[in-house]
Amino acid sequence: MNKLVLATDLGGTNLRVAAVDRDGKILYRTKYETPKSERADEIFRVITQAARKCQEAVEKNGKIIAVGAAVPATVNAADGIILKAPNLPALDGVRFSAAISGELNLPVILENDANSAAIGEHWRGASNGFDNSICVTLGTGVGGGIILSGEILRGVDGTAGEIGHICVEPFGAPCGCGSRGCVEQYSSATAIVRIVQELKNQYPQSLLFEKLFKKTHCTSLDVYEAGKAGDELALEAFRQMGFYLGIALADLVNVLNPEVIVIGGGAAAGWDLFIHHVRNQIYSHAFREPAERAKLLRAKLGDDAGILGAARLAFNLSLIG
Amino acid sequence: MNKLVLATDLGGTNLRVAAVDRDGKILYRTKYETPKSERADEIFRVITQAARKCQEAVEKNGKIIAVGAAVPATVNAADGIILKAPNLPALDGVRFSAAISGELNLPVILENDANSAAIGEHWRGASNGFDNSICVTLGTGVGGGIILSGEILRGVDGTAGEIGHICVEPFGAPCGCGSRGCVEQYSSATAIVRIVQELKNQYPQSLLFEKLFKKTHCTSLDVYEAGKAGDELALEAFRQMGFYLGIALADLVNVLNPEVIVIGGGAAAGWDLFIHHVRNQIYSHAFREPAERAKLLRAKLGDDAGILGAARLAFNLSLIG
């Protein structure tokens, strides 16, 4: 019988669960709102509910053999424990794998969401075939996952890969992490909007001007669209965003000498407006040989990267278990 | 019979060769000036001469089974080829291992000098027992070697570990590598002297003042001694040096989550004047958990780190070959 896994991607807003086959094909998927609860068991209840729904939907396609879970947290993957989940503090310190495994009677593997996305892109996405790769996700924040010799880099406590908190301005903008000048403050989707807000008075002709002053919601996609239309404020925002992202990636090129850097997340939509700035900074700041080696590729899997990474880990788990 | 290896550490100024036993004990050592030749075979001649001298000296102690060579260059370790040696351009592109192996009739393993130092400290020095460690050498430049899961990180082309060229000031001082704002420009022994030169006019009472204005040679050790005596210019130089080193190491703490960071090289002599600044910046810039995890340790092996790392690699080679 065909072997399948369940993969869940728990975000601050949505919980997505899917049934995935060995080729990375998503056979069924469902999406729930992440409960705004202070109780972990309420979150577990929604996860198991979604998982059972998937299980029923693919009953005739094969047998579910394991569960992979991507969570927005640092994790102890070996013991299945969530260490710290900044946006879902109810989960701090919980034995996630044991709880879900107890409900579903399946082995469960836990992973950080950015690491899962890197594993997903490596399995079925842009970095497939490249065993030394870096995956950067430009969303609300800047997430990162590093694959070396085909394995995700976890570090001693599972906290490795925090690319978004490389310091690119020692006296720069304060960051939610407690530091300042993190690349997340310059190159996330959030940062692009902040940059146009900060610079708007210098660009009274900007297409974004009305939107920014009327304080209607302005997104990084609005900035991208203005930039495509030649708006100078928008182009300057993407220049700054690419400049700083390039500095952080140049550091990684010098330190890790990777084959591939995959860039995804909402702000990657602005690719054609920022990628040449990123490339210029990598060439300016990194050594020539590793700079020439590191291919810059756009992520392929979109929102499914985390799900597919979790699925991959679940299949790996079933090989061991 | 007791198995021994020869280990060579080729620097821009000196070539050091030693015979080393399986416990990392140096049984004999010799030092030559590095030939200022434009011909690689002249350098090879001095290396083999030094190697034969060591071989004869330990003839009665055991049998030499392999050679490990640390070189100031990026290398293709698998093929024994020097890729680029910025301070010894005669060696660019040469088949180092084949040449030395042909002369000495022994297997030869080649490694970058900073990587060798990291391996040496891991085998017999400060990071012994820690399989995830970073080794930083503060000399003329800032060198680096990274050990993950007990293995040196080489990257795809053998250029990984260039910690000295992490950017800590995006619009900062120009660096010899072609970039600007590299930590090497702020935290090397050379940089400490440059910082006091730049700041001297603000500190007319400095103990270093006469030395700096008479332009007699001022070294980082002079700055350290002035700092120990309470000199404010010297203390400010070490504050800046520690501040920027801390930012670069905080990046590595966030990205790699290591157990140990070993700091060596000439400027590490100023340890008690800069290490609290380094620690403060790591705590300010990195996430709490990996910041608390990363022990800062002073290198133990001094100038022998490279030799012992090369020796370790030679013993490993003999296990495989």
Topology order of chain A in helix (H) and strand (E) letters = EEEHEEEHEHEEEHHHHHEHHEH
Oligomer: homodimer
* Pair of chains with the largest interface and how many residues each contributes: A-B, 48 and 48 residues
Secondary-structure-derived class of chain A: alpha/beta
Folded structure, characterized:
Two copies of one chain form a homodimer. The first copy, chain A, is of the alpha/beta class and 321 residues long. Chain A is 40% helix and 21% strand. Chain A has eleven helices and twelve strands. Chain A has helices spanning 40-57, 96-104, 113-124, 184-187, 189-199, 209-213, 220-228, 232-256, 271-285, 288-293, 305-320; strands at 3-10, 14-21, 26-33, 63-71, 74-76, 81-84, 108-112, 133-138, 142-148, 151-152, 260-264, 295-298. The two termini of chain A are 18 Å apart. The mean pLDDT of chain A is 94. At the A-B interface, β9, α8 and α10 of A face β9, α8 and α10 of B.
Overview in brief:
2 copies of one chain form a homodimer. By secondary structure, chain A is of the alpha/beta class.
Keywords:
homodimer, 321 residues, alpha/beta
